[in-house]
Amino acid sequence: MYIESFLELFIPYITGFLETIGVIIITVASIKAIIGFVKSGFDFGNENLKIELAKALALSLEFKLAAEILKTVIIRTLDEFLILAAITFLRIIISFVIHWEVDAREKKEITSKEANA
After folding, report:
1. Which residue of 30, 49, 66, 70 has the fewest C-beta atoms within 10 A of its own C-beta?
2. How far is CA 16 from the centre of its chain?
3. Whole-angstrom distance, CA of residue 38 vs CA of residue 82
4. Mind giving me the DSSP string for 7-59?
5. How confident is the model at residue 3 (pLDDT cuts 50, 70, 90)?
């Protein structure tokens, strides 16, 4: 009983904190990407810039997913569970796609460097 009350009280703060960290990561990475994009002379083919931004987005999604998992502790209704499950599923898919894209670009970059050497 006491643990349940404790969790209901503190989990919203913890999840808010984790989601805020995710937002900060996205904000900082976006600013760095914009600065790098401008410094590169608006080079749309800058793979390093794309990889770094994608990695930051993936990290941000991990924090947001952690917050969603914690929210499952305080769910009371089936409707809340279904909404949370849908959000979690979408975030997992997005995270998977970002990781897949980063891996593909890093392999492409390595292959390109080997071809130039």
Report:
1. 30
2. 15
3. 43
4. HHHHHHHHHHHHHHHHHHHHHHHHHHHHHHHHHTTS-TT-HHHHHHHHHHHHH
5. confident
Long-range pairs, 90-94, Cβ under 8 A, ≥24: 91/61, 91/64, 91/65, 92/65, 94/61
Rg (CA), the chain: 19
**Exposure string over 17-43, b if 16+ CB within 10 A, otherwise e:** ebbebbeebbeebeeebeeebeeeeee
In this predicted structure, the answer to whether residue 117 has a pLDDT above a threshold of 80 is no
